[in-house]
Amino acid sequence: MLYCSGTTRHNFSTDGSPHCRNHHPASSPLRIGRPTRTVCCDRRDILRNASVLHLRQPYDEPVGSIQGNRCASGIWSRTGHRSNSTILAIRSESSPVATGKSNAVNDALTDYLRENKRKRFIYIPNRGNAGDAFLTHATYQLFRRLGLSYDIGSLSEQHPRETIICGGGGNLIPAYTDIATFIKRNKDVWHEFILLPHTVRGHPELLRSLDSNCYIFCREEPSLAFVKSHAIRANVLSANDMAFHWHPEETIRSASELWRKRPADAVRRYCGDIRLWWQDRSSRAIRTTKSLNAFRTDVEKTTLPLPSDNVDISRMYAVPNLTPSNTLSVTYRMMKLIGAFDLINTNRLHVGIMAALMGKEVNLYDNNYGKNRDVFQYSLHTFSKVNWCESASNLGASTPETEHSIASAHNGITL
């Protein structure tokens, strides 16, 4: 549920949720102001059972004005202004987040947003699965860090005379029409249009209709070449997938903030975890080992034989509305689950990206039209623990060290 006081602008906490009580109509855009800089955490250790993430809270009272520091060991930490303040750390020195391997911070998209930060715009989240929720959460984080002001709109609406930023992903292919339909509805009335990093494989006539007030960012080389060949008047640039802008320590801190300020929401979302687990538990016996098999079961699935313990977590955790609080919840759930394993076998692109950013070993397989291979060659190949796989030969038959349900990975979830 979105909350709104009825005014035209809101300040958001680190979880992206406004601090007001009146229900906001679902059909209206949510107006978002510049984010607050004070971060508060309570003493609850919401990740006490995670294998790679740890939150230490030495004080009962909140700590504000948290600033980031890079430790000599390569561990990211957040340290408050007092001598014995809250510390938030990613516990894996080999993690790309810890070692700074992600090169998305200074790409062409970030430069463009910095140059245009004075503009107010409409942000249109892409529809999709939990992977789309994850990259949308990373997008909200980037907007917050850059101090951008924006409204949240919908793919079903028209926004005349507005600057529109449309969410990243893989929606401009023949199998999907959501963003293509939105562009057709708005292209004659918008002021400016920015498409966040995308895989593009179709809709050539639509691309040819785009003018010089359009900026199309592509997340890999084949899409860049395809769009340049058709959108001859638009501005076409390359940039990393939005998920590479994810800061996991911000997610952990935001989850703690949400639990402290909105405990009823936390209980409701925890009950949702139980429901999701029971659906999965009742359909198959899940055996967990040190490896997680998370392969697609949707329209982009391949002929790869599914392991008997496969869990399509992107489909399982999907939510219909990609609001700041919903995307925080989904991202945290995915973090908690992936954090319980050492090896991730997947052809879900954003499961692979999240696992890579958490320092996990990843065996990444292709989807049915090649986007995973292209993003791997453009971005993920720089991660030493991410392996490209052509076949299922290295899946093999695993012997479980512990036989229990997938819900054991959710112990302690309060979001």
**Strand content of the residues, in percent?**
15-25%
**How many individual helices?**
12
Structural class: alpha/beta
Measured distance between first and last alpha carbons:
14 Å
Unreliable runs, pLDDT <50, ≥5 residues? Answer: 1-104, 279-288, 396-415
Please give the number of β-strands: 16
Q: How confident is the prediction overall: mean pLDDT?
A: 74
Topology pattern, helix = H, strand = E: EEEEEHHEHEEEHEHEHEHHEHHEHEHE
**Rg calculated over all Cα atoms:** 21 Å
The largest pleated sheet is described as: 8 strands, mixed
Tell me roughly what share of residues is in helical segments: 25-40%
Spatial shape: globular
List the helices and strands and how they pair.
Layout: E1 30-32, E2 53-56, E3 67-70, E4 76-79, E5 87-90, H1 96-99, H2 108-115, E6 120-124, H3 130-146, E7 149-152, E8 163-166, E9 169-172, H4 178-186, E10 192-200, H5 204-208, E11 214-218, H6 221-230, E12 235-238, H7 248-261, H8 263-283, E13 291-294, H9 313-316, H10 324-338, E14 343-346, H11 349-357, E15 361-364, H12 371-378, E16 386-388
Parallel strand pairs: 6-7, 6-8, 8-10, 9-10, 10-11, 11-12, 13-14, 14-15, 15-16
Antiparallel strand pairs: 1-7, 2-5, 3-4, 4-5
Keywords:
12 helices, disordered N terminus, 415 residues, alpha/beta, 16 strands, four-stranded antiparallel sheet, disordered C terminus, eight-stranded mixed sheet
